[in-house]
Amino acid sequence: MYHKKYAIVIIAVLAIIMSACSKSAEYNQDKNADWDEQEYNVKTLNEIIRCLDEKDEQALINMMSKNIRKEFNVSAQIEQAFSVYGKTEDYGEFNDHGIMSSDVRHGKYTRKVIGAEMKGVKTDSGRIFDIMFGRCVIDKENPGDVGVYKIYLKDREYGHLAIIGPISNSERDTLKRNIDASNGITEEYIDETASIIIRNGKTNEAHVIQNDEESIGKIEQMLQSMSMIPCSEESYDEWDYKYTLSNRKNQFKVMYIFRDGHCCVNDKDNNNTYYTIDDTSTYNELIEFAKSLVD
């Protein structure tokens, strides 16, 4: 009887030990799997940086998943990345993002996406990038999704300057705005006055001032600084001279219509404001300037 009890106890202890060993082995296997993925992520980031340095377009294309290569113009996206990157001077710091998204069924992954980032990569152009990628490692339903699906180049000063892979409309707009800003083309720059059309109201004769920043700047300053007193709405069916200002995209900014010491200012929202000229000196100078060009 006692022997049977001991035997049962021994069997139970062995079962617990074997179960614990099994769980420990599974845990270590998972840790090793995570470590393998992390090691692979480091290699992937190093390879992305090598491709950027050596302008190896084909190698970058081959890294992307089959479906991404089929659905998106990754070649053009890669060229954009090449144009902003330069050469690496310092690799920065590796940051593993682990599992970014996953689906699990019956305790097993049916889809698993991991990612990583190299932060603070310094280039010879003086730019500092955070380079991130996402990689699908398992997809039972769509095997064509397995592979790198997205690469980001984020400039520390201007934000994302290149995205390789799927890109939304909002990301595309942000990307364009960031690229323009990195090239000095800000919204303020675009809105600067780039041309002025001066027109004679009697003869419809017109003269365009363009590519002359000094003259444009002087005329704009005179128009903006001229002292005027608001008055009631008046008819401008007939007028003497008109100054129309447009920005660098040739978009209408503002129009000044002059008539007998009065001015109607029409803004970009098509709102009219009426004034009586108080600063006759500046007004006369603008009128004489217009006469010299369109009379």
Description of the structure:
- This is DUF5104 domain-containing protein.
- Keywords: Signal.
- The protein is an alpha+beta fold.
- The protein has 2 domains: about 35-185, Roll (Nuclear Transport Factor 2, Chain: A); about 190-295, Uncharacterised protein PF16224, DUF4883 (Dna Ligase, domain 1, 2-Layer Sandwich).
- The protein is built from 8 helices and 13 strands.
- The chain has helices spanning about 1-55, 55-65, 65-70, 75-85, 170-180, 185-190, 215-225, 280-295; strands at about 90, 95-105, 110-125, 130-140, 145-155, 160-165, 195-200, 205-210, 230, 240-245, 250-260, 260-265, 270-275.
- The strands form 2 sheets. It has a 7-stranded antiparallel beta sheet with strand order 8-7-10-11-12-13-9, with helices on one face. Strands 1, 2, 3, 4, 5 and 6 form a 6-stranded antiparallel beta sheet that branches.
- β12 and β13 (about 270-275) form a beta hairpin.
- The protein is elongated, with a radius of gyration of 34 Å.
- The termini are far apart.
- Residues about 1-35 have low confidence and may be disordered.
What general form does the structure show? elongated
How many domains? The number is 2
Give, in spatial order, the strands making up the sheet with the most strands: 8-7-10-11-12-13-9
- The value of Rg in angstroms is 34 Å
**Unreliable sequence segments:** 1-33
Give the biggest sheet: 7 strands, antiparallel
The average pLDDT is: 87
CATH topology name of the largest domain: Nuclear Transport Factor 2, Chain: A
CATH architecture of the largest domain: Roll
Distance between the termini: 126 Å
Q: Tell me the name of the CATH class of the largest domain.
A: Alpha Beta
Count of individual beta strands: 13
Structural class: alpha+beta
